[in-house]
Specification:
The chain starts with 9 loop residues before the first strand and ends with a helix. It has helices spanning 22-32, 43-48, 51-58, 70-84, 99-102, 112-135, 163-185, 200-203, 208-218, 226-237, 262-268, and strands at 10-14, 36-41, 61-64, 88-93, 139-149, 188-194, 248-251. α1 packs parallel to α3. It contains 11 helices and 7 strands. By secondary structure, it is of the alpha/beta class. Bound molecules: nicotinamide-adenine-dinucleotide. Nicotinamide-adenine-dinucleotide binds next to α1, β5 and α8.
């Protein structure tokens, strides 16, 4: 049982592929907290995934949209407002994909068409979501828009490849559009930089198990799970965080502030 901290709030949740997805856990919690929302994913993901089970549990409608298509996004934002009977209070962009990572390309042998795809799907799509939200006048005042990032935007993690550039773009968009949306409508825009998490997108990175374990040992609180991330997202959608905007918020159990930890020293001895 939740505490109804999202009671009366309406939104769109992108990126629930299966029950491991951060967006999936967020949808369950948002529903528990009294929110009403539309679920969306790329048409191909809707065919492969199990989103209808989630939709049933959350009493939500599913609208397909490729997040790189402004046309799809415009239809999504318009339809969502019709379905929900009003403007939106929150949007979660939980989208990431790199064809170069998926196909195991080394960083010195990237396919540039795929690199552009990585940037479009994982970075630029956030700008498209924000711009369409503005143009369709979809947001209520004091709304909250979030995307999910990773610390490879600031530090090098070799196997993260061109996704590192996409996350840097994503975080920069949150600052620039955060300024704009605050001035226009008092809407806040942030990114959450999440620990490595066992999901389809996460485990696509080579050596993910070792990497997950390393991050866990380097984080005094351990890795933040998808469920923990969902809780944080709910807080960021609530009225308790109205003055937080244009930030990249570290949600990583202390990883980003740790130099070395005793757990890691023990492991390396
Ligand atoms: N798993 C991790 O280790 C980790 C760590 C930090 C940040 N993140 C980020 O969290 C977010 C969610 O990923 P996840 O870990 O829940 O994995 P996931 O694979 O469950 O979710 C990624 C989603 O992106 C969707 N997507 C891909 N291309 C799309 C497109 N063109 N249009 C619309 N949707 C599209 C997929 O269908 C999928 O639902 C991503 O931004 C990811 O980079 C993940």
């Amino acid at each position: 049982m939740g505490n109804n901290i999202l009671k009366g709030k309406k939104g769109i949740i992108f990126g629930a592929l299966d029950e491991n997805s951060i967006a999936w856990k967020t949808a369950l919690k948002a529903s528990e907290e009294g929110a009403e929302f539309v679920l969306t994913n790329a048409p191909i993901a809707l065919r492969m995934g199990t989103i209808n089970q989630l939709a049933e549990k959350c009493n939500a409608e599913v609208i397909p949209a490729d997040a790189t298509s402004v046309e799809d996004l415009t239809a999504l934002f318009e339809k969502s407002q019709e379905i929900l009977g009003g403007k939106l209070d929150f949007v979660l962009h939980s989208i990431g994909m790199s064809p170069n990572v998926r196909k195991g390309k080394s960083y010195g042998d990237l396919n540039y068409d795929w690199f552009l795809k990585t940037l479009d799907i994982s970075g630029l799509s956030f700008h498209k979501v924000l711009q369409v939200a503005e143009k369709t006048d979809a947001m209520n005042e004091w709304g909250s828009i979030l995307a999910l990032s990773y610390i490879a935007a600031q530090r090098s993690f070799p196997d993260y490849s061109d996704m590192a550039q996409a996350k840097a773009v994503l975080e920069s968009i949150a600052r620039s559009y955060g300024y704009r949306f605050a001035k226009l409508k008092k809407v806040r825009v942030n990114t959450i930089s999440q620990s490595p998490t066992m999901t389809t997108a996460g485990s696509g990175v080579t050596g993910f198990d070792v990497f997950f374990d390393y991050a866990d040992k380097m984080s005094p609180l351990g890795n933040a799970s998808a469920g923990d991330c969902a809780n944080f997202i709910i807080t960021m959608f609530s009225d308790y965080t109205r003055m937080v905007t244009m930030q990249n918020l570290m949600h990583d159990g202390g990883f980003s502030a740790s130099g070395i930890t005793e757990d890691l020293i023990e492991r390396l001895k």
